[in-house]
Amino acid sequence: MAMPDGDFSRDVRRYLRSLPSFSYHGVEFLARGEYSLNYLVRGPNLVARLVTGTQMGLPLEEQAPYEHHALTLLSPSGVTPKPYHVDPNPKNLPYPLILEEFLPGRPLDYATDIPAAARCVAAVHALGVPQGHRLQIHPDPAPAILEECRRLAEPYLDWSGAPEGSKVALLGGFRRIQGLLERKGLFTGDDLAVVNYDLNTHNFVVEDGGAKLLDWEKARVAPRTQDLAHFLLPTTSLWRDDTATLLTKEQEREFVEAYLEQNPVADVGRFHEQLVTMKTIVSLRAVSWCAWALQETARAGRPIANEETLDRSRAYLEPAFMEDLFGP
Protein backbone atom coordinates (compact mmCIF):
# COMPACT_ATOMS: atom_id res chain seq x y z
CA MET A 1 0.00 0.00 0.00
CA ALA A 2 1.38 3.41 -0.93
CA MET A 3 1.89 5.79 1.98
CA PRO A 4 -0.63 8.66 1.84
CA ASP A 5 0.79 12.14 1.28
CA GLY A 6 -1.96 14.15 2.97
CA ASP A 7 -1.95 15.77 6.42
CA PHE A 8 -4.99 14.63 8.37
CA SER A 9 -4.47 16.89 11.41
CA ARG A 10 -7.76 18.68 10.84
CA ASP A 11 -9.63 15.38 10.51
CA VAL A 12 -8.04 14.07 13.72
CA ARG A 13 -9.08 17.24 15.57
CA ARG A 14 -12.65 16.85 14.31
CA TYR A 15 -12.73 13.23 15.42
CA LEU A 16 -11.35 14.00 18.90
CA ARG A 17 -13.99 16.67 19.41
CA SER A 18 -16.63 13.98 18.91
CA LEU A 19 -15.34 11.84 21.78
CA PRO A 20 -17.31 12.27 25.01
CA SER A 21 -15.48 13.89 27.92
CA PHE A 22 -12.28 14.29 25.93
CA SER A 23 -10.40 17.61 25.98
CA TYR A 24 -7.13 18.58 24.33
CA HIS A 25 -5.11 21.69 23.46
CA GLY A 26 -4.02 20.93 19.91
CA VAL A 27 -3.00 18.34 17.33
CA GLU A 28 0.17 18.40 15.27
CA PHE A 29 1.93 15.98 12.96
CA LEU A 30 4.54 13.92 14.81
CA ALA A 31 6.04 11.21 12.59
CA ARG A 32 5.42 9.00 9.59
CA GLY A 33 5.88 5.29 10.12
CA GLU A 34 6.18 2.54 7.56
CA TYR A 35 2.48 1.77 7.98
CA SER A 36 1.19 4.64 10.11
CA LEU A 37 0.73 8.39 10.42
CA ASN A 38 1.26 9.71 13.94
CA TYR A 39 -0.06 12.93 15.48
CA LEU A 40 0.76 14.48 18.87
CA VAL A 41 -2.37 15.34 20.86
CA ARG A 42 -1.36 18.08 23.29
CA GLY A 43 -3.07 18.38 26.64
CA PRO A 44 -3.37 14.72 27.54
CA ASN A 45 -0.07 14.13 25.68
CA LEU A 46 -1.24 11.22 23.58
CA VAL A 47 -0.36 9.94 20.13
CA ALA A 48 -3.17 9.60 17.61
CA ARG A 49 -1.95 6.83 15.35
CA LEU A 50 -3.62 6.33 11.97
CA VAL A 51 -2.98 2.76 10.84
CA THR A 52 -2.45 2.87 7.07
CA GLY A 53 -1.37 -0.73 6.44
CA THR A 54 -0.55 -4.09 7.96
CA GLN A 55 2.31 -6.56 7.81
CA MET A 56 0.43 -9.21 9.78
CA GLY A 57 -1.82 -10.48 7.00
CA LEU A 58 -4.85 -8.91 8.68
CA PRO A 59 -7.65 -6.84 7.17
CA LEU A 60 -6.86 -3.17 7.85
CA GLU A 61 -9.83 -2.77 10.22
CA GLU A 62 -8.38 -5.59 12.36
CA GLN A 63 -4.82 -4.24 12.52
CA ALA A 64 -5.59 -1.34 14.88
CA PRO A 65 -7.44 -3.53 17.44
CA TYR A 66 -4.56 -6.02 17.18
CA GLU A 67 -1.99 -3.32 18.06
CA HIS A 68 -4.22 -1.96 20.83
CA HIS A 69 -4.55 -5.47 22.28
CA ALA A 70 -0.76 -5.90 22.24
CA LEU A 71 -0.25 -2.61 24.07
CA THR A 72 -2.84 -3.63 26.68
CA LEU A 73 -1.02 -6.91 27.30
CA LEU A 74 2.36 -5.17 27.57
CA SER A 75 1.30 -2.28 29.80
CA PRO A 76 2.41 -4.01 33.05
CA SER A 77 6.02 -3.94 31.78
CA GLY A 78 6.15 -0.17 32.32
CA VAL A 79 8.25 0.32 29.18
CA THR A 80 5.59 0.50 26.43
CA PRO A 81 2.93 3.12 25.62
CA LYS A 82 -0.32 2.74 27.54
CA PRO A 83 -3.32 2.36 25.19
CA TYR A 84 -6.36 4.59 25.67
CA HIS A 85 -8.73 4.14 22.74
CA VAL A 86 -9.12 2.26 19.47
CA ASP A 87 -11.57 2.76 16.62
CA PRO A 88 -11.29 0.48 13.57
CA ASN A 89 -13.80 2.60 11.60
CA PRO A 90 -13.52 6.20 12.86
CA LYS A 91 -16.02 8.67 11.46
CA ASN A 92 -14.49 11.29 9.12
CA LEU A 93 -11.05 9.62 9.19
CA PRO A 94 -9.61 7.63 6.29
CA TYR A 95 -7.85 5.01 8.45
CA PRO A 96 -8.32 3.14 11.74
CA LEU A 97 -7.15 5.05 14.81
CA ILE A 98 -5.38 4.23 18.06
CA LEU A 99 -4.90 6.69 20.93
CA GLU A 100 -1.89 5.77 23.02
CA GLU A 101 0.47 7.37 25.53
CA PHE A 102 3.11 9.74 24.15
CA LEU A 103 6.54 8.73 25.42
CA PRO A 104 9.08 11.57 25.21
CA GLY A 105 12.76 10.96 24.56
CA ARG A 106 15.43 10.63 21.92
CA PRO A 107 16.35 7.67 19.69
CA LEU A 108 18.66 5.06 21.14
CA ASP A 109 22.41 5.70 20.86
CA TYR A 110 24.44 2.50 20.55
CA ALA A 111 27.45 4.20 22.13
CA THR A 112 25.71 4.88 25.47
CA ASP A 113 22.34 3.12 25.67
CA ILE A 114 22.94 -0.59 25.09
CA PRO A 115 22.37 -1.61 28.75
CA ALA A 116 19.19 0.48 28.91
CA ALA A 117 17.89 -1.16 25.72
CA ALA A 118 18.64 -4.62 27.12
CA ARG A 119 16.79 -3.88 30.38
CA CYS A 120 13.83 -2.54 28.41
CA VAL A 121 13.54 -5.65 26.22
CA ALA A 122 14.03 -7.89 29.26
CA ALA A 123 11.15 -6.15 31.07
CA VAL A 124 8.83 -6.95 28.16
CA HIS A 125 9.98 -10.55 27.83
CA ALA A 126 9.68 -11.09 31.59
CA LEU A 127 5.90 -10.94 31.13
CA GLY A 128 6.12 -14.26 29.30
CA VAL A 129 3.03 -15.24 27.33
CA PRO A 130 0.03 -13.36 28.78
CA GLN A 131 -2.97 -15.51 29.59
CA GLY A 132 -5.88 -15.09 27.20
CA HIS A 133 -3.87 -13.22 24.58
CA ARG A 134 -5.08 -13.05 20.95
CA LEU A 135 -1.71 -12.49 19.27
CA GLN A 136 -0.29 -14.57 16.46
CA ILE A 137 1.91 -17.41 17.70
CA HIS A 138 5.17 -18.50 16.05
CA PRO A 139 6.76 -21.08 18.41
CA ASP A 140 9.31 -22.07 15.77
CA PRO A 141 9.51 -19.11 13.37
CA ALA A 142 12.28 -20.54 11.19
CA PRO A 143 10.16 -22.42 8.59
CA ALA A 144 7.73 -19.49 8.20
CA ILE A 145 10.58 -16.98 7.87
CA LEU A 146 12.28 -19.17 5.27
CA GLU A 147 9.10 -19.37 3.24
CA GLU A 148 8.64 -15.59 3.49
CA CYS A 149 12.26 -15.11 2.38
CA ARG A 150 11.65 -17.26 -0.68
CA ARG A 151 8.62 -15.19 -1.68
CA LEU A 152 10.57 -11.96 -1.22
CA ALA A 153 13.76 -13.08 -2.96
CA GLU A 154 12.44 -15.02 -5.97
CA PRO A 155 11.58 -11.93 -8.08
CA TYR A 156 15.09 -10.56 -7.46
CA LEU A 157 16.74 -13.88 -8.31
CA ASP A 158 14.75 -13.98 -11.57
CA TRP A 159 15.45 -10.30 -12.37
CA SER A 160 17.95 -9.57 -15.13
CA GLY A 161 18.89 -6.30 -13.40
CA ALA A 162 20.31 -8.02 -10.32
CA PRO A 163 24.11 -8.53 -10.31
CA GLU A 164 25.07 -12.19 -10.61
CA GLY A 165 27.44 -12.01 -7.65
CA SER A 166 24.62 -10.72 -5.48
CA LYS A 167 22.33 -13.57 -6.56
CA VAL A 168 25.01 -16.15 -5.77
CA ALA A 169 25.61 -14.72 -2.29
CA LEU A 170 21.88 -14.56 -1.56
CA LEU A 171 21.44 -18.20 -2.60
CA GLY A 172 24.31 -19.01 -0.24
CA GLY A 173 22.25 -17.54 2.60
CA PHE A 174 19.36 -19.85 1.71
CA ARG A 175 21.68 -22.88 1.75
CA ARG A 176 22.98 -21.87 5.19
CA ILE A 177 19.44 -21.58 6.57
CA GLN A 178 18.43 -24.91 5.09
CA GLY A 179 21.27 -26.52 7.00
CA LEU A 180 20.18 -24.89 10.26
CA LEU A 181 16.62 -26.17 9.83
CA GLU A 182 17.96 -29.71 9.99
CA ARG A 183 18.72 -29.08 13.68
CA LYS A 184 15.49 -30.35 15.25
CA GLY A 185 14.12 -29.25 18.61
CA LEU A 186 16.15 -26.06 19.02
CA PHE A 187 12.98 -23.97 19.31
CA THR A 188 10.55 -26.04 21.33
CA GLY A 189 8.17 -23.38 22.61
CA ASP A 190 9.51 -23.14 26.16
CA ASP A 191 11.18 -19.75 25.67
CA LEU A 192 8.27 -17.75 24.23
CA ALA A 193 7.41 -14.12 24.92
CA VAL A 194 5.69 -11.23 23.21
CA VAL A 195 8.30 -9.93 20.76
CA ASN A 196 8.44 -6.59 18.95
CA TYR A 197 9.98 -7.94 15.72
CA ASP A 198 11.51 -4.56 14.79
CA LEU A 199 14.08 -3.45 17.38
CA ASN A 200 15.69 -0.53 15.55
CA THR A 201 17.05 2.59 17.22
CA HIS A 202 14.02 4.74 16.39
CA ASN A 203 11.60 2.32 18.02
CA PHE A 204 13.30 3.07 21.34
CA VAL A 205 12.97 6.35 23.19
CA VAL A 206 15.56 7.14 25.86
CA GLU A 207 15.07 9.62 28.69
CA ASP A 208 16.88 9.99 32.04
CA GLY A 209 18.92 6.86 31.41
CA GLY A 210 15.93 4.60 30.81
CA ALA A 211 14.64 3.18 27.52
CA LYS A 212 11.09 2.46 26.40
CA LEU A 213 9.87 0.67 23.29
CA LEU A 214 7.38 1.91 20.70
CA ASP A 215 5.67 0.57 17.56
CA TRP A 216 4.07 -2.78 18.36
CA GLU A 217 2.33 -3.19 15.00
CA LYS A 218 4.11 -6.52 14.39
CA ALA A 219 3.82 -7.93 17.91
CA ARG A 220 3.59 -11.70 18.13
CA VAL A 221 4.38 -14.57 20.49
CA ALA A 222 7.71 -16.08 19.44
CA PRO A 223 11.10 -17.10 20.89
CA ARG A 224 12.56 -14.15 22.69
CA THR A 225 15.88 -14.62 20.91
CA GLN A 226 14.11 -13.30 17.81
CA ASP A 227 14.10 -9.81 19.34
CA LEU A 228 17.66 -10.10 20.62
CA ALA A 229 18.96 -11.24 17.23
CA HIS A 230 17.16 -8.39 15.48
CA PHE A 231 18.74 -5.83 17.82
CA LEU A 232 22.30 -7.17 17.46
CA LEU A 233 22.47 -7.67 13.69
CA PRO A 234 24.32 -5.24 11.39
CA THR A 235 21.24 -5.24 9.13
CA THR A 236 19.54 -3.41 12.03
CA SER A 237 22.35 -1.38 13.54
CA LEU A 238 23.54 0.01 10.17
CA TRP A 239 20.07 0.68 8.74
CA ARG A 240 19.63 4.38 9.55
CA ASP A 241 22.29 6.86 8.49
CA ASP A 242 21.90 9.02 11.61
CA THR A 243 22.55 6.13 14.03
CA ALA A 244 24.51 3.65 11.86
CA THR A 245 26.89 1.60 14.01
CA LEU A 246 28.57 -1.76 13.51
CA LEU A 247 28.40 -3.29 16.97
CA THR A 248 31.61 -4.71 18.37
CA LYS A 249 31.78 -8.13 20.03
CA GLU A 250 32.13 -6.27 23.33
CA GLN A 251 28.93 -4.31 22.72
CA GLU A 252 27.06 -7.50 21.77
CA ARG A 253 28.31 -9.15 24.96
CA GLU A 254 27.28 -6.09 27.00
CA PHE A 255 23.73 -6.27 25.62
CA VAL A 256 23.30 -10.00 26.22
CA GLU A 257 24.76 -9.86 29.74
CA ALA A 258 22.54 -6.93 30.73
CA TYR A 259 19.52 -8.78 29.34
CA LEU A 260 20.30 -12.03 31.17
CA GLU A 261 21.02 -10.17 34.41
CA GLN A 262 17.41 -8.94 34.45
CA ASN A 263 15.82 -11.95 32.74
CA PRO A 264 17.96 -15.05 33.42
CA VAL A 265 17.57 -18.40 31.65
CA ALA A 266 17.98 -21.93 32.98
CA ASP A 267 20.12 -23.24 30.11
CA VAL A 268 22.58 -20.55 29.03
CA GLY A 269 24.25 -22.78 26.45
CA ARG A 270 20.98 -23.51 24.68
CA PHE A 271 20.06 -19.83 24.84
CA HIS A 272 23.27 -18.85 23.03
CA GLU A 273 22.77 -21.59 20.43
CA GLN A 274 19.26 -20.28 19.78
CA LEU A 275 20.59 -16.73 19.48
CA VAL A 276 23.29 -17.62 16.95
CA THR A 277 20.79 -19.55 14.84
CA MET A 278 18.19 -16.81 15.04
CA LYS A 279 20.71 -14.17 13.94
CA THR A 280 21.30 -16.10 10.72
CA ILE A 281 17.57 -16.59 10.12
CA VAL A 282 16.71 -12.93 10.73
CA SER A 283 19.64 -11.83 8.54
CA LEU A 284 18.21 -13.75 5.61
CA ARG A 285 14.84 -12.13 6.12
CA ALA A 286 16.45 -8.67 6.12
CA VAL A 287 18.42 -9.10 2.89
CA SER A 288 15.48 -10.86 1.20
CA TRP A 289 13.32 -7.82 1.95
CA CYS A 290 16.03 -5.60 0.45
CA ALA A 291 16.02 -7.77 -2.66
CA TRP A 292 12.24 -7.42 -2.94
CA ALA A 293 12.45 -3.64 -2.43
CA LEU A 294 15.01 -3.11 -5.20
CA GLN A 295 13.31 -5.36 -7.74
CA GLU A 296 9.83 -4.02 -6.98
CA THR A 297 11.05 -0.43 -7.17
CA ALA A 298 12.57 -1.09 -10.59
CA ARG A 299 9.44 -2.92 -11.77
CA ALA A 300 6.70 -0.70 -10.38
CA GLY A 301 8.27 2.74 -10.36
CA ARG A 302 9.50 3.48 -6.86
CA PRO A 303 7.06 1.97 -4.34
CA ILE A 304 9.92 2.58 -1.88
CA ALA A 305 10.27 6.35 -2.04
CA ASN A 306 12.97 6.72 0.64
CA GLU A 307 16.35 6.97 -1.09
CA GLU A 308 18.16 6.08 2.15
CA THR A 309 16.23 2.79 2.24
CA LEU A 310 17.16 2.00 -1.37
CA ASP A 311 20.83 2.86 -0.83
CA ARG A 312 21.02 0.67 2.26
CA SER A 313 19.26 -2.16 0.43
CA ARG A 314 21.85 -2.02 -2.35
CA ALA A 315 24.67 -2.10 0.21
CA TYR A 316 23.18 -5.11 2.02
CA LEU A 317 22.97 -7.03 -1.28
CA GLU A 318 26.68 -6.62 -1.99
CA PRO A 319 28.34 -10.07 -2.02
CA ALA A 320 30.92 -9.08 0.62
CA PHE A 321 28.22 -7.92 3.05
CA MET A 322 26.21 -11.13 2.66
CA GLU A 323 29.32 -13.27 2.99
CA ASP A 324 29.99 -11.59 6.34
CA LEU A 325 26.45 -12.57 7.39
CA PHE A 326 26.33 -16.13 6.06
CA GLY A 327 29.91 -17.12 5.29
CA PRO A 328 31.50 -17.57 1.83
Automatic annotation (TrEMBL):
A Pfam family recorded for this sequence: APH
InterPro entries, per database record: Aminoglycoside_PTrfase, Kinase-like_dom_sf
Residue span(s) of domain Aminoglycoside phosphotransferase: 28-244
Keywords: Transferase
A GO molecular-function annotation: transferase activity
Record-given protein name: Phosphotransferase
